[in-house]
TrEMBL record:
Protein's UniProt name: Transcription factor MYB30-like
Principal cellular location given in the protein's record: nucleus
Domain HTH myb-type: 9-61, 62-116
Stretches with biased composition (Low complexity): 121-137, 144-157
Keywords per UniProt: DNA-binding, Nucleus, Transcription, Transcription regulation
Annotated compartments: Nucleus
Keyword set includes Membrane: no
Domain Myb-like: start-end pairs: 9-61, 62-112
Source domain of life: Eukaryota
DNA sequence: AAACAGGCCAACCGCAAAAGC
DNA sequence: AGCTTTTGCGGTTGGCCTGTT
């Protein structure tokens, strides 16, 4: 069987995700779910393969993800579970709410394996095993408060995501200072919608995400002209390689419109 | 201050299983 | 029933960061 072309050959992006891509993915999944990962990036206007989107969502963007350092109880539980289940990371993750298999796997390889080796080399196997067993936590203990150092260890990416996934503000955007609910706004989009979002000098489109905590989430999209003289703007103006799919994203997300989009 | 080494972790790859047709 | 597509999983990699020399 011929191997499927890799993402790069298909013109898809690889490597670290940008905050803008995260926003789009979170927005799309919150609105439509993820019934088909393969189709999702195209529908959402992301230049990523479905596999990459799935991984990003599961390992990083899911709202129930618990960020920050592992507690001692969690670490002991991982050791105990690994003793029982072996390298079945997804099975271990299923018993640790908010933790992903990838995260657990990383913790195991970077911390726990080494620690366990040190323990066994400095104490008898029997005492080590009983120590682990006695300290292992039950699943209900997993939700105990995290140390403050853990809770403060949150990236700006997560902050933006949190703002967009907060139940109090879901599907809300602000256009020219007026709060709107996406589900109400988009079905009625017409040319006047975009006119309202235009800046005073018609040089940019302004959209706002309420409660956002950094500039990246309060984007202003410069209007540019393509080779054919058609006007448009990029959804991610700060990205190095540019991703001109804003129009596609919003139309697909709220409209289902299949009109021809200008090429840039 | 620069070079190097090691730790860490997000993301990728390939394979297998499951689901769909 | 068999083939194709999609999803899930575990292993691995690459690049950034930090500590050490």
């Amino acid at each position: 069987m011929v191997r499927a072309p890799c993402c790069e050959k298909m013109g898809l992006k690889k490597g670290p995700w940008t905050p803008e891509e995260d926003q789009i993915l979170v927005f799309f999944i919150r609105k439509y779910g993820h019934g088909n990962w393969r189709a999702l990036p195209k529908q959402a206007g992301l230049l990523r393969c479905g596999k990459s989107c799935r991984l990003r969502w599961i390992n990083y963007l899911r709202p129930d993800i618990k960020r920050g350092n592992f507690t001692r109880e969690e670490e002991e539980a991982i050791i105990k579970l690994h003793e029982m289940l072996g390298n079945r990371w997804s099975a271990i993750a299923a018993r640790l709410p908010g933790r992903t298999d990838n995260e657990i796997k990383n913790v195991w390889h970077t911390h726990l394996k080494k620690r366990l080796k040190d323990q066994t080399s400095t104490s008898s196997p029997a005492s080590s095993a009983s120590n682990v067993a006695s300290q292992s936590a039950e699943p209900e203990n997993m939700n105990s408060p995290q140390p403050s150092s853990s809770s403060s260890d949150v990236s700006s990416v997560t902050e933006v995501t949190a703002a967009l996934t907060d139940d109090n503000h879901q599907d809300m955007i602000t256009i020219k200072g007026e709060n709107m609910e996406l589900s109400e706004t988009f079905p009625e989009i017409d040319d006047s919608f975009w006119c309202e979002a235009l800046s005073a000098d018609n040089s940019s489109i302004q959209l706002e995400f309420p409660e956002a905590t950094n500039d990246q989430a309060q984007p202003q999209f410069p209007i540019t002209e393509n080779d054919s003289g058609e006007l448009g703007f990029t959804f991610c103006p700060n990205m190095d390689d540019g991703m001109e799919f804003w129009y596609d994203l919003f139309i697909r997300a709220g409209y289902g419109d299949t009109r021809e989009l200008p090429e840039f």
